[in-house]
Write a structure and sequence with these properties.
CATH superfamily of the largest domain: Spore Coat Polysaccharide Biosynthesis Protein SpsA, Chain A
Shape: globular
Largest sheet: 10 strands, mixed
Helix content: 40-55%
Number of strands: 10
CATH topology of the largest domain: Spore Coat Polysaccharide Biosynthesis Protein SpsA, Chain A
CATH class of the largest domain: Alpha Beta
Order of helices and strands: EHEHEHEEHEEEHEHHEHHHHHH
Oligomer: single chain
């Protein structure tokens, strides 16, 4: 029997949370599933855990390879998958028991190439529901995807996620849609842009069953070795027309890119300010962003829209960014952090 859904899970040194992840899949109410785990050269006992579960459930398939990175691992999972639809799960995340039943039933009922749902983002004790500004439970055709969904990939980050979607496997395979290996721009974003560029139908449903868990402190422990701002600059400079047939002109693309870039710069400034690095290192990194000509350029197009929608604290940061005042931004963030203690 061909499984209805193949769920692909890349695994690299995930032993600390892997059992909970696997169990959330085994608890699924949908039965026509297969679980493709790709052990990407783990050095802990992740593979032993997977083998243990595979003896208990025949739906589990294991691919083991040398460490090649998450994109290559997901591509290996796609090659192994046999389901009508494919979904993705990260080894440190969880899904509700009805997740794949709800999404696959919606995909079958409406006969669409892709189903999108909301998801829970969790950080320490904070949980919020991430949603999107599309009409729910209504089938979108090709032109609506081009008009409504594809420009949103430029404007916001959260739609880039792959775990809150099901993709028709035949469309992925026949169109050669794979994750890029060795690129700085987010691999999930490029995969989604390529897939939605060929998708003929889509459905956004009123459901939230995926739990994305951001490991507390993981982004700030080794911050010195990561060029976060460099990645933002590459995303800002990326040619979206090279992967998507967009129905908007270059001026609108630039405006959307600018808004996203400034929002991400503010988030990255917070990341540095709250890291465990020295005050001097944090300040010099923030100063580099604040004084960047690309930030000044993006603010020209993004400032009014972001300022009008922001609360007083973010408005202060935007003003300081516009005035190129790194000290004002740095101390405002530190003060806000102290007040929250």
């Amino acid at each position: 029997m061909i499984p209805k859904v193949s769920i692909i899970v890349p695994v690299y040194n995930a032993a600390a949370f892997l059992r909970d992840c696997v169990q959330s899949l085994l608890n699924q109410t949908a039965k026509e599933l297969e679980f493709v785990f790709v052990n990407d050269g783990s050095k802990d006992n992740s593979l032993e855990i997977l083998n243990e579960f595979a003896l208990m459930d025949s739906r589990i398939k294991i691919v083991s390879q040398e460490n090649k990175g998450v994109s290559a691992a997901r591509n290996a999972g796609i090659a192994k998958a046999t389901g009508i639809y494919i979904g993705f799960l990260d080894a440190d995340d969880l899904v509700d028991a009805d997740m794949y039943e709800v999404l696959s039933d919606a995909a079958s009922k409406h006969n669409v190439d892709v189903v999108i749902s909301d998801f829970h983002a969790e950080q320490t004790e904070t949980v919020w529901r991430v949603g999107f500004p599309f009409e729910k439970n209504r089938r979108m055709d090709r032109e609506e995807i081009r008009r409504e969904v594809m420009p949103y990939f430029i404007r916001k980050d959260w739609l880039n996620s792959i775990w809150n979607k099901l993709y028709r496997r035949s469309a992925v395979v026949e169109n050669g849609v794979l994750f890029p290996v060795g690129v700085a721009l987010g691999e999930d974003l490029i995969f989604n842009m390529k897939y939605f560029n060929i998708a003929q139908s889509a459905l956004y449903i009123d459901y939230c069953g995926y739990h994305y868990k951001e490991i507390a402190g993981s982004a700030t422990r080794n911050i010195k070795g990561k060029d976060y701002f460099g990645r933002l600059l590459e995303t800002y400079a990326f040619d979206y027309r090279s992967v998507m047939d967009l129905p908007i002109d270059d001026k609108e693309i630039h405006r959307l890119k600018s808004i996203r870039f400034v929002e991400n710069v503010l988030s990255t400034i917070h990341l540095y300010a709250q890291s465990r690095a020295s005050h001097w290192f944090k300040y010099t990194q923030i100063r580099k962003m604040v004084k960047s000509p690309e930030v000044a350029e993006a603010l020209i197009l993004a400032y009014d829209e972001l300022y009008s929608a922001a609360r007083s604290y973010t408005r202060f940061l935007l003003k300081a960014l516009k005035n190129k005042s790194p000290l004002a931004i740095y101390f405002a963030i530190l003060y806000g952090k102290l007040r929250s203690l």
